[in-house]
Amino acid sequence: MDSVPFPIRTLISSHFTNLSQKSQITMESFLQPRKSHIIGIIATILILGSVGIRVAECRAARRLASIDYPAISCRKHSAVLTDFGGVGDGKTSNTKAFQSAISNLSQYASDGGGQLIVPSGKWLTGSFNLTSHFTLFLHKDAVLLGSQDESEWPLLPVLPSYGRGRDAPNGRFSSLIFGTNLTDVIVTGNNGTIDGQGSSWWDKFHKDQLNVTRPYLVEIMYSDQIQISNITLINSPSWVVHPIYSSNVIINGLTILAPVDSPNTDGINPDSCTNVRIEDCYIVSGDDCIAVKSGWDEYGIKFGMPTQHLVIRRITCISPDSATIALGSEMSGGINDVRAEDITAINTESGVRIKTAVGRGAYVKDIFVRRMTLNTMKYVFWMTGSYGSHPGPGFDPKALPNITGINYRDVTANNVTYSARLDGIEGNPFTGICISNVTITLTENPKKLQWNCTNVEGVTSNVTPQPCDLLPLKEKIDCPFPDDKLPIENVQFKTCSSSNF
Ligand SMILES: *[C@@H]1O[C@H](CO)[C@@H](O)[C@H](O)[C@H]1NC(C)=O
Ligand SMILES: *[C@@H]1O[C@H](CO)[C@@H](O)[C@H](O)[C@H]1NC(C)=O
Ligand SMILES: *[C@@H]1O[C@H](CO)[C@@H](O)[C@H](O)[C@H]1NC(C)=O
Ligand SMILES: *[C@@H]1O[C@H](CO)[C@@H](O)[C@H](O)[C@H]1NC(C)=O
Ligand SMILES: *[C@@H]1O[C@H](CO)[C@@H](O)[C@H](O)[C@H]1NC(C)=O
Ligand SMILES: *[C@@H]1O[C@H](CO)[C@@H](O)[C@H](O)[C@H]1NC(C)=O
Ligand SMILES: *[C@@H]1O[C@H](CO)[C@@H](O)[C@H](O)[C@H]1NC(C)=O
Ligand SMILES: *[C@@H]1O[C@H](CO)[C@@H](O)[C@H](O)[C@H]1NC(C)=O
Ligand SMILES: *[C@@H]1O[C@H](CO)[C@@H](O)[C@H](O)[C@H]1NC(C)=O
Ligand SMILES: *[C@@H]1O[C@H](CO)[C@@H](O)[C@H](O)[C@H]1NC(C)=O
Questions:
Q1: Residue with the nearest Cα to atom 10 of ligand 10?
Q2: The CATH fold of domain 1-235+485-501
């Protein structure tokens, strides 16, 4: 392919990128202007002759190299970033190429949808917006590099359920990959990479030089039918994947990596979302591997949008200073019906942790966790009712969170410092805690007070070491885990095709 002249390469690319359906530039329209000139015709015939052979070769090569990938929807139209002036040299900005490619493909929203392939290469870019009925596909050797130039990151207003930015009160930078008010949007690949190049942002954070909140790597808001899968996301400036005010979200096959001392690099943060499935992800991060959220104090209470019907399974987490899965601390729209299973954590501060505070209001209830395998943990169980961290002085001290129906079963943990630190709110205990079939092996020099419980109520069964008096041991209780499936668990993937550039 390298010897084919540029316009013809573009033509071939456009023509054969999409193996199933028509492309945008046809052979006919490309040749049309030359027809009136005899020389043109001869040239055309000559070109066609050689192209014909190459097309045949390419077609065969492409067919062989085309890869199948699982997705909630396949797309009729397909294009490659280079069709829109993309340059994969790691230096040229591709922000405009992404924007014009996606804007071009958005015209197919009601005609089978569009797919944008990012081929092998290093693609420097600022923030760009996704569109509906659209797939962004990253080739395995494609690396998106987040721009270091702040002007490449447009500003957005603060999130209504937060009332302010988390780093600074004013606006926030748009995420590298951003989408709002969309239906049916996919970010996938055969393990291509998105590198946020976050270190300059982490420096600014540490030096207190931010007056706008840092960008995330992927944020999709007010959207329905979202898939984010089979890619590697590294060095995010802050949170990594943030679906918010959305429904029917599938996140799977992600590798998320950030230095364990990088600030606020939470892996996946489902926030005020309904029907979410997160599975088969490997996360190493400087903050919670998964943080389930729903808005902050008076702003979250007013917005009133919970996160609910969330399944998390087959996750591996490494996060020495944070939780495997955190519920909160921002939970002011409520969190309910969370099902987490087959969770592995290594060298992580805690398992499934609840973080809340007076002023948050709302609730965390009907939480079900089973089959956790943990190794080298500070805490197996940790709940905190005094997390603090308010958006401002305007929070309502009477807005007490209701934490109830929290169930853990079938847990094995090794090399543990503290079995549990369960700290409810005085006068507003955390209730309905159930912990069963748990075997904890302690570190060489374990702490004396293994179960430190205040303001909590519940039961335990078949748990070692012996729990606190507030969670008395009962005979033969299996803490509940729902038998039914959530609708999002029944969503099947189709097999789609992408040529493998
Ligand atoms: C964008 O779409 C139009 C069809 O509406 C097509 O003619 C045009 O060539 C496309 N642009 C590029 C750069 O492919
Ligand atoms: C991306 O979406 C945001 C929010 O709707 C909007 O403010 C911004 O202008 C969009 N950017 C582009 C390049 O369209
Ligand atoms: C996106 O959806 C939200 C919630 O429905 C709505 O308030 C907002 O106006 C919409 N934004 C756009 C740009 O359509
Ligand atoms: C994807 O890439 C990451 C980073 O290179 C690697 O650790 C991971 O094993 C890869 N995943 C798959 C499924 O190949
Ligand atoms: C903070 O914002 C002001 C304007 O709003 C700007 O002039 C200044 O450069 C910003 N400071 C930093 C450190 O970004
Ligand atoms: C995506 O990841 C899943 C497992 O998470 C795997 O079964 C599937 O083959 C992967 N697909 C591609 C195209 O890499
Ligand atoms: C056990 O945990 C301690 C920290 O408490 C750690 O330093 C040590 O390496 C761990 N040992 C093993 C065998 O993982
Ligand atoms: C907390 O929620 C539970 C379950 O919804 C309910 O029974 C209980 O009354 C609530 N407690 C408070 C203090 O509101
Ligand atoms: C107890 O939990 C372990 C995993 O930690 C599991 O293998 C075992 O089957 C569970 N026992 C019961 C009775 O459920
Ligand atoms: C027990 O927990 C309380 C509240 O979280 C804390 O203040 C106290 O220091 C803990 N005690 C020990 C001995 O760890």
A1: 452
A2: Pectate Lyase C-like (2.160.20)
